[in-house]
Amino acid sequence: MLKNVVKSQLFSSTSRRCCSNKVRNWPKIIFSGIQPTGTLHLGNYFGAVDKWKQLVDCSDGDVILSVVDLHAITLPQDPKHLHSGILHMTASLVACGIDPEKCILFQQSKVPQHALFGWVLGTLTTMTRLYHFPQYKEKTETLKDIPLGLFTYPVLQAADILLYKSTQVPIGGDQVQHLHLAQHLVHTFNNKYGVTFPIPEYIVEAHSGAGRIKSLREPEKKMSKSHADPKSRIEITDTPEQILSKIKKAVTDFTSSVKYDPENRPGVSNLIDIHALAVGQN
């Protein structure tokens, strides 16, 4: 099916220029991806992978999931470690319940159209728009030499989504601005070359703690695979003893009572979120 999806009439000469949006019944296609760096942690699992599993099992459309290794190389990577990471991430997703018999699970760089279409969309994107992405500012704070790929990766992300004419994209709250770029590029492309892509909509569970799992060491920040301190995250491969140790050492506060207050007591609230998700409660 992947081959059929990629062979779209992306640059067909028969496409007509559009003067206004045309209503089409686009087939439901859900797309999402994850970088093959580090080991999956609870934030990844509850915030993304568990939702993917539900979509794969219950969706009435096609679900396409990608191990996005092209995004990983926006920062320096050891080739051997990256190759191992791709295999490890794929195995982790399958172990977490992603059934490749029910969805498409593939390696991004194996489909060269991602890079090709990313270049095309880059000609329709302005530098001013990309400068406003908070993730770019956050990731470049500690870098002396900033890779161009880090600056343009939202464009490649848009290419990932649009290449398969995706209609829905499950994302975290911090990725909404990235999808807005994809939507903007759909309008630009369709108005210039003819109606070619649907406008992708995002799937965000605003009231779920799954999208708010924070670092155990810095509860003001997201739990991250790239954090220097391994005690900041609970990885899916951790032993029960390691999990217990990390929870005991998690940063909280000096108040003995247990109260859910993310704004004033982020450490305690983070542990409550983790416990609630682990036992299946809201």
In short, what is this structure?
This protein has 282 residues and is mostly helical. It folds into two domains: 25-203, 3-Layer(aba) Sandwich (Rossmann fold), CATH 3.40.50; 214-278, Tyrosyl-Transfer RNA Synthetase, CATH 1.10.240.10.
Q: Estimate percent helicity.
A: 40-55%
Kindly provide the radius of gyration, computed on alpha-carbon positions and rounded to a whole number of angstroms.
Answer: 20 Å
Strand line-up of the largest beta sheet: 1-2-3
| Assigned CATH architecture of the largest domain | 3-Layer(aba) Sandwich
| SSE run | HEHEHHEHHHHEHEHH
- How many separate domains make up the residues? 2
Mean pLDDT: 89
Q: Based on CA inertia axes, which overall geometry fits? A: globular
State the major sheet: 3 strands, parallel
First-to-last CA distance:
37 Å
Strand content: 5-15%
Question: At the first level of CATH, what is the class of the largest domain?
Answer: Alpha Beta
**CATH homologous superfamily (4th level) name of the largest domain:** HUPs
Coarse structural class: mainly alpha
Low-confidence stretches: 4-21
CATH fold-level label of the largest domain: Rossmann fold
Helices, by number, come to 11
- What's the β-strand tally? 5
